[in-house]
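[step 3/7] inverse_fold.run input=structure_tokens len=288
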């Protein structure tokens, strides 16, 4: 059964009759990972988003919106576009709904849905956007092909990913380097790919997109940028590494003492006058 959803100037056709959850305030909880995603999005907002502006009245699908950290930025940068944001996790959709309401964003519609079983008709959207999602998927090209199906011919697909192999910092210690390697290994063990940024061109090409443009976006921070040290290193990077402690210890990739020192040394980078940090994101745009 197809259900037609009318939202302002736009129509979305859902295959299974699900309703789109309109933005409303929900008093949700805010876990540490959610806060990290908001901090990450805000710390690198201009670097990643300054050149993504969707035309008035265009329909945009954001796939894997999580708690809405990028969604709010997209919606504010393109206030006259209609954004449908989906995530496989209903909890994330509920939190996204909360943050969208708090930010008074009116052009976003949220829906719990899986990228691999999209509930939309083919050629429904003018543009597709996804950020930090492919790295977690076992079959990223399959996901891109499924997203391509719901994209209109002539429309664009934008993808942003990090690449943990691009990270350099000073000072390095044996333990910081080991802890960083554990982050990469744990994601590989979980069938994800934290080195995916450098692969965006072949992935987009594999999904039959054309006119592909890839642009590396490097974040470089030293003690002359204390706000970025705090927002990016302390609130985004360090919690991301801390997030794999359990798996690192279970897989015996590092011992607890060395792990704790690695985390402490990483934290110290932001506090030291000689501390520096460098990381590269990759943004790719392809056309259907
Ligand atoms: C690292 S989070 C990124 C969230 C958001 N894009 C951001 O940048 O803040 C990855 C998100 O992808 C979602 N996700 C993973 N697999 C998915 C799938 N098959 N369909 C839809 N969402 C998916 C997860 O639930 C999670 O919210």
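[step 3/7] decode complete -> sequence:
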């Amino acid at each position: 059964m197809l259900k037609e959803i009318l939202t302002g100037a736009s129509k979305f056709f859902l295959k299974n009759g699900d309703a789109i959850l309109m933005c409303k305030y929900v008093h949700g909880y805010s876990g540490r990972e959610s806060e990290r995603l908001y901090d990450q999005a805000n710390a690198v907002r201009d670097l990643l988003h300054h050149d993504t502006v969707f035309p008035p009245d265009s329909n945009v699908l954001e796939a894997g919106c999580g708690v809405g950290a990028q969604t709010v930025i997209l919606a504010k940068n393109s206030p006259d576009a209609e954004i449908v944001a989906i995530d496989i996790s209903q909890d994330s959709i509920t939190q996204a709904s909360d943050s969208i309401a708090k930010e008074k964003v009116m052009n976003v519609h949220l829906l719990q849905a899986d990228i691999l079983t999209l509930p939309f008709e083919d050629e429904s959207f003018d543009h597709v956007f996804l950020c930090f999602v492919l790295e977690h998927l076992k079959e990223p090209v399959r996901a891109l092909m499924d997203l391509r199906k719901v994209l209109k011919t002539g429309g664009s697909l934008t993808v942003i990913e990090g690449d943990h192999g691009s990270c350099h910092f000073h000072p390095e210690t044996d333990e910081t380097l080991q802890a960083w390697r554990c982050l990469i290994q744990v994601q590989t063990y979980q069938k994800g790919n934290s080195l995916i940024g450098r692969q965006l061109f072949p992935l987009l090409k594999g999904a039959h997109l054309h006119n592909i443009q890839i642009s590396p976006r490097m974040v470089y921070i030293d003690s002359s940028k204390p706000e970025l040290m705090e927002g990016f290193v302390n609130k985004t990077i360090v919690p991301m590494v801390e997030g794999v402690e359990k798996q690192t210890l279970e897989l015996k990739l590092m011992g607890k003492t060395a792990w704790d020192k690695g985390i402490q040394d990483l934290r110290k980078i932001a506090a030291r006058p000689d501390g520096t940090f460098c990381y590269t994101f990759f943004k790719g745009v392809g056309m259907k």
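[step 4/7] annotate
The chain is about 40% helix and 25% strand.
Residues 3-165+191-222+281-287 form a domain with the Rossmann fold fold (CATH 3.40.50.150).
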